[in-house]
Amino acid sequence: MHTKWKNSIEVISIFTDELKAVVGIFCKYNYELCVAGGAGRDILMEITQKGVDFGTTAAP
Questions:
Q1: Are residues 14 and 33 in contact, defined by beta-carbon separation less than 8 angstroms?
Q2: DSSP letters spanning 1-60
Q3: Cβ-contact 34, 51 below 8 angstroms
Q4: Closest listed residue to residue 21, CA positions, set 6, 33, 38, 39
Q5: CB within 8 A of 49, min separation 6: which ones?
Q6: CA distances, 60 to each of 8, 20, 34, 38 (Å)
Q7: What pTM value is reported for the model?
Q8: pLDDT score for 2
């Protein structure tokens, strides 16, 4: 699937080294991690990110 957002600077900019480490942990244990809240909206509106919220299938 092609989307203009996949490689956009708005999407790429949220993937800091710290976030990549967190994503790696969730993947290691087969949990899903999804962008939630205002970050998704801001990406679509091409607004610079100030923070990212996530939803997950992992139990608290």
A1: no
A2: ---TTTT-HHHHTT--HHHHHHHHHHHHTT--EEEETHHHHHHHTTPPPS--EEEESS--
A3: no
A4: 33
A5: 10, 13, 14, 39, 42, 43
A6: 32, 20, 15, 22
A7: 0.63
A8: 46
How much of the chain exceeds pLDDT 90, in percent?
18
The dihedral region occupied by 15, where left means phi > 0, alpha psi between -120 and 50, and beta the remainder, is beta
Cα separation, 44 vs 5, in Å, equals 8
State the residue for tokens 């990549």.
20
- Pull the structure tokens for residue 39: 């970050």
CB neighbour list of residue 15: distance below 8 Å, 6 or more residues apart? 23
